[in-house]
Amino acid sequence: MDTIASLFSFITTPVSWVIVQFHSVYGALFGPDTGWAWGLSIVSLVILIRICLIPLFVKQIKATRAMQTLQPEMKKIQERYKNDKQRQSEEMMKLYKETGTNPLSSCLPILAQSPFFFALYHVLNSIANNDTIGVINQSLLESAQKAHIFGAPLAAKFTDSSADVAALDASLTTVRIVTAVMIVLMSASQFYTQRQLMTKNVDTTVKTPFMQQQKMLMYVFPVMFAVFGINFPVGVLVYWLTTNVWTMGQQMYVIHNNPTPGSKAQASYLDRLTKHVTQHEKVGRRRDRAIVKAIVVKGRDRNEFERKFINGLSKAGLAAQADGTVIKSDTAAAAQAEDGTPTTAVGTPKRQQPKRQSKSQRQHGGAVGPKAAGESEPKTSLTKADEPEDAKPAAAAKKGGAKPAGGTRSKAQSGQRKGPQRPKSPSKK
Asked: Could you give the 3-state DSSP secondary structure of residue 121?
């Protein structure tokens, strides 16, 4: 234990100092020897650490997004070198180097928390062993030993014997019930956080080993917490449960407001954004404008959810701009839809196509127009009443001509000019 103390001495003193400062504040409110004072001090330590780790969390999100962007290229490499694992690994490393991505960047918050976690573990273990550490003197040590959280001492563990628990003025049954409940909550929160990431915020269009690894971690981490949790003091369980709840809430916020492209979360987000933009005819928040700008820049590389979003704006008479804003699109010019088909803007009348004439109308010389205008059609052919008995129509003399029907004009001959024709005089026999 002395070796561990020497290794983490650079961090145990700051951690103990922060806990003592928070304890002085909460001790004035709840009493210096209460579990509330010491428990809230640990919770406040977690919150302070996680606030300091927000830049690393942002870097983690960017690294995760970069890895998801590379998934199609990773899949190509795997298919190309599926029989050569060494070459496959070399090409993967080359791809990471060219794009500047690092698969380990997604673990930065956990790695950064590790020193604080081990420092807090050592501080609480020293309290259980009645040893002073850092800025925790003998009076603070006695106060911490008296502190109980739901009847369990701050330094008690699930694996402690009844004698160890009795020395801390507690019951073994109470300690094991409290620690078991906290371990279950810790494992459940970790599982839900990872499952939420896999089911809502992962691009489902591409299947890669990276997704399989994340799915495996969804089951491995809760088991690890359950196995190692029985050796954690109650104070460490409070620390880890608090950081898990913080991570879960932080991830829910990111998924709701900045989802991964191609994920179910993005579909829900763009549906909400479409309703808001069509109702107010503007993109209000800067975060939303950044997402709209990224969608516009993609062009034809947009996924199905992004195309649905752009088409939804078009149907509402709006058009997304390159700067992330939207404008009204009610001009007469036709807009180009996402699938390449021309569509007219809202409020613009469609161009009327001329009605296709039948064959008889074309042979009649396009005389439908005057009828539609209410004009009388000029008489262009002889009727049976006006035709002499010994006369034959001129059209019947030509080869292929049609016999005139009663009350109708003769059909136009091939090569003959369409339109009203001068009636030909009947030929004599």
From this structure: helix
| Residue 153: closest CA among 40, 304, 15, 38 | 38
d(CA 162, CA 175): 10
Alpha carbon of 210 to those of 74, 83, 138, 203, 219: distances in Å?
Answer: 9, 19, 50, 11, 15
Of 150, 127, 152, the closest CA to residue 137 belongs to 127
CA 44 to chain CA centroid, Å, is 31
What's the CA gap between 174 and 87, in Å, rounded? 56
pLDDT, tens digit, 9 for 90 and up, residues 394-408? 444 444 444 444 444
pLDDT digits (tens, 9 = 90+) for 267-306: 899 999 999 888 888 888 888 888 888 888 888 878 888 8
User: Rounded to whole angstroms, how far apart are CA atoms 333 and 294?
Assistant: 25
Neighbours of 259 (CB within 10 A): 21
pLDDT in tens, 139-167: 888 888 888 988 899 888 898 888 888 88
Give the separation between CA 183 and CA 84, rounded to whole angstroms: 43
Name residue 115's amino acid. Answer: P
With a CB cutoff of 8 Å and minimum separation 6, the contacts of 146 are 33, 169
Distance CA(405)–CA(415), nearest Å, equals 21
Residues 6+ apart with CB under 8 A from 384: 406
**Helix, strand or coil for residue 77?**
helix
Task: List the one residue out of 174, 211, 408, 288 whose CA is nearest residue 165.
Answer: 174
**Residue 37 DSSP SS3:** helix
